[in-house]
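Q: Second attempt. The first request was missing the SMILES, so the protein and zinc ion are both included now.
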Amino acid sequence: MKFYITTPIYYVNDKPHIGHAYTTIAADILARFKRLMGYNVFFLTGTDEHGKKIEKAAEELKISPKELADKNHIIFKELWEKLDISYSKFIRTTDPEHQEAVKVFWTKMVSSGTVYKGKYVGWYCIHCESFFPSSQVKDGKCPSCGRAVDILEEESYFFSVKKFKEKLSKYIETSNFIRPEFRKAEVLNALKEIDDISISRSRERVSWGIPVPGDDKFVIYVWVDALINYVSALGYPNGDKMSFWPADVHFIGKDILKFHAIYWPMFLEAVGLEPPKTIFSHGWWRVEGKKMSKSLKNVVDPFEIAKLFGSDTLRFFMFREIPFGRDGDFSEEAIRKRYESNLAKDFGNLLLRVSKFAENNFPEGVRKNFPSSNTELETAFDLWMEKMENIDYFSALDVIWNLVNLANKLMDQKSPWNLIKHDREKAEQVIYELAHIIKVIIFMLYPFCVSTCRKVSHNFGIQWLLDESSPKDKKDVLGFQEKFKISSTGVLFPKIEG
Ligand SMILES: [Zn+2]
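A: Got both inputs this time. The predicted holo structure:
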């Protein structure tokens, strides 16, 4: 069973911010979940290193674009390491294999008869590297980013869309292609209005790109170059990983939905490849109510957040706070609240209480006594599976937290610290029952809080449960094991000063 997950490739002119972390964590959660379920997962991320934006940023720093990319792509890699991102491949669009694949892809598009040379006149935004029709440009400002736009006239290669519109629109209407569902209408409208796509740039204006095969007055439009990474990473056209195509999920931010949901499937169809199965576009994080922007100096640095609260807290917060797909509000206060109430109080305390009690009173381990099958756990597991399959992380975490609450209640009601005084066997049974619930919880929570769950799995002697290289089924997770040999987890989420 194969499963192919991607993030967008990120521009290297920028430092990674919380938005990059969001998309990439979302992809990682699904990758880890699918691996546990026995899928052969290919998880791709990387950097977009061509185009005018990179050229300009490098110019300002008085270095070459390649030097800028060499330097900056490493920052992304470092962040992914800090955030426990388990990608299979990190692609750079300056990789020679990628550039070769783009040329092959381009040549195939041309020979399919969908590319022609024409003239483009229009408003152009350097920042967005996009042309805009005058109907959308107000006061000389870019409709997408608000920066000043210029009139530009140049020869260009165009991709003719008319052959593809109807089929794509049917695909969108009848499939799971666009997620969340509420973005379908917006894509269908954009599709109706779309004109032929300019797919090249004159080399005079943009020199940092892949030359158009056979016509080096032009470079390939950076978006065409970038989108092709999803197949070049698999060894397009004939590499052995091409069997992973079509991608199961492209995770993206909602701002680049048009490129992924409209342009990309059309390009693919032109070269005879299937469209991706799902494009999941998420919303934006605002910061204390405001859009995150460099000029407002409110860009949240994920390195800082991870340093302060830990990677697991960031991974947990982003999907516990708002339904994935919607916009959310980021503030240090909000993340602190989640840390203190959910992670430290509900979860960390539970684990500490159970594990410490077990360590002190049952150093040889707690044995299976008379466990009765717990239908509550089974129902929760099934529901969690359904939510995870559906990329509804918010609801999946809800299911998990119900179990955390259940375990806390059980601990309080059955008070093993009293039982131990007169009925040791009963106390053991309670601890076994709690350990069993905790086992189910850490399995379900693992894709979100990777390192915490790994640590706890060691304390409970169940490391095998989180081994992604061997698949787990319901029986592994819900089955009763002979005994748990438990050591104290210590304080998992210590108080953060400041
Ligand atoms: Zn713009």
